[in-house]
Amino acid sequence: MTTTKTFEKDRNSEQPATHTPPIVSPEAWEAAGRQMLVKEKALTRARDALAAERRRMPWMAVEKAYEFEAPQGKVSLLDLFEGRRQLIVYRAFFEPGVFGWPEHACRGCSLGADQVAHLAHLNARDTTLAYASRAPQADIERLKTRMGWKMPWYTITDSFDTDFGVDEWHGHNAFIRDGDRVFRTYLINGRGDEAMGTTWSYLDITPLGRQETWEDSPEGYPRTPPYKWWNWHDNYDAEASPHAKWVEVSDAGEAAFRKPDAEAKA
Asked: CA 255, CA 108: separation in Å to the nearest integer?
């Protein structure tokens, strides 16, 4: 039996009555879920295809020498990579004139900062995430301590934000380096920033992607088997190669994940 309920307006509230979706049996609920899953899988595959196109976007050489302030003093854009091959720089608004100053950064930027995944997993994929604002380092360090944020956060001292389209609005710029040469590869801003914060969302905007064997990437790009590189965030340095037991567990998990897809195509 299918019914639709209406929640009556609360006697002490001005909120209108809420019309809920149908209330159904467990069997009907499962059937509706299977129909939705078809659309969700299509969305996932479309997102993967978009990321594959992103990895084939042209690169722009960064010719200007940009300078930032760090806790240890002046640093260059190349220094922000911390020796890794890829870099994502998020322009956060924390400076005089921004709502919340000087106690807080922009509320939207702060919500995003609260969502940032543990950086060890990005670092394991040769990728560094950094934040950049125009606030002095003393204020940035005070804010990070208060909010419990761990990402490296630099002070913009020149035209970096203007040159990379983040002087008036937040955004993530992705870069890659070839030795000492730096290239800009992508910009995501506006509502695109809403989805950022997970290890996967960051890697998907980088030129090398997740660097896993299943990805559609250009020839010669780094690739390792999925799951195998995963680790506890405090164990990457101690364990350079996958643990034999984790290989066994992850193989079983991957097979279980792929079984429904194989059955659907049969």
From this structure: 40
| Dihedral angle of Cα 96, 170, 117, 204, to the nearest 10 degrees | -160
Which helix (H) or strand (E) segment is 141 a member of? Answer: helix 137-147
Q: Are strands 60-61 and 181-189 parallel, antiparallel or unpaired?
A: antiparallel
Element (H, E) at 212: none
- Cα torsion 116, 120, 122, 128 to 10°: value is 90
User: Given a cut of 60, is residue 201 above it in pLDDT?
Assistant: yes
Which stretch of DSSP H or E encloses residue 75?
strand 73-76
CA atoms lying within 13 Å on the CB side of residue 198: 6
CA nearest neighbour of 91 among 154, 142, 146, 144: 154
Q: What is the pTM of this model?
A: 0.90
CA distance 69 to 40: 44
- For 222, residues 6+ apart whose C-beta sits below 8 A from its C-beta are 126, 208, 211
* Whole-number Å distance between alpha carbons of 209 and 80: 19
Kindly report, residue by residue over 20-70, the tens digit of the pLDDT. Answer: 899 999 999 999 999 999 999 999 999 999 999 999 999 999 999 999 999
Q: Which among 4, 248, 236 has a CA at the least distance from the CA of 120?
A: 236
Contacts of 192 (CB under 8 A, 6+ apart): 172
